[in-house]
Amino acid sequence: MDESARPFRKIIHVDMDAFYASVEQRDNPDLRGKPLAVGGGGPRGVVAAASYEARPFGVRSAMPGARARKLCPDLIFVPPRFEVYRAVSQQIRTIFERFTDIVQPLSLDEAYLDVTRNKPGIVSATYIAEEIRRMIREETGLTASAGVSYNKLIAKLASDQNKPDGICVVTPERGADFIAAMPVARIHGIGPVTARRMEELGIRTGADLRAHELSFLQARFGKAAHFYYGAARGEDHRPVEERQVRKSISVEDTFERDLYTPDDLSAALAPIITRLWQRIEKAQMFGRTLTLKVKFNDFTIITRSQSLPDPVTSETVLESAGQALLAVQCPVAKGVRLLGLGVHNFQASDRKEDKPRPAPPEQRQLTLAL
After folding, report:
1. What are the Cα distances from residue 118, in Å, to 9, 10, 179?
2. Which is catalytic among the residues 53, 110, 235, 315?
């Protein structure tokens, strides 16, 4: 197909503002205007979401509840009500579907929409985004932020620019400059470990990344280099895919120094379990099989899996099973430089994983009025 004949894409990324916490404040007026955390405030609890009043104190999602209380002594903890969040999420999904059936949920509180061809036949994607935000506010009492652009990468970054209750539009003419000013650590698809490696190479912004040839990036980042090279130029050709089912959820960490002792390894796995559980809860995907990944200092990798009788539906079960998988590998003969833990074999799921894929070579981005 002639590239010039390709239809223009108009992508919206909608992200609810402090979703869980906002639902709780909506339903309980006594919580409005107060620092609030959804989750557990005890020694083993985790913050699933924090209200905007709590964030200036440094309270963030995935943070241990005990630490959150130290940062904000007046913090109010409320237990999560996932059945309510799921119901509200479905309300929001029906609003999306008034405009398009091409909806890719990332979790209960965010989704991509392709409105290139939309049901009402509206030309302006910006107008659609504003209508969606208005309907969400009127029908749920909640606010959402939106990013509007010509691809998924920039739409997602844009939705975070004017939070809360804001919108950001990035046209193709502005795409490369928008990415150029972005810290690489914020670019979706560049994780914390890769961002640190880039910083060691003097790559701190999208502009720094764009200054390097593809061969330079390939030598240092392998297959992912194609995505980084395109991203630095505002390119991302991944479609919005509403039907692909997510197959796994995982978290891994690379350590600054090699770990050897069982105590050090167990301590390193604990925050991985915390972050994994937060992702599981957010996606509402509960699997029966856990997989432990261990990379040694000679770069050899082993994986060990265990299937449980029932899906993992609590952090306590996840922690027990994950630490047991690790304990079987101890003591280790070589230093460990990376640990990872994942869950799959889901009981039921209609969620979608959104991993960046390399862009096809020489595909052009065309001018688009958003």
Report:
1. 11, 10, 27
2. 110
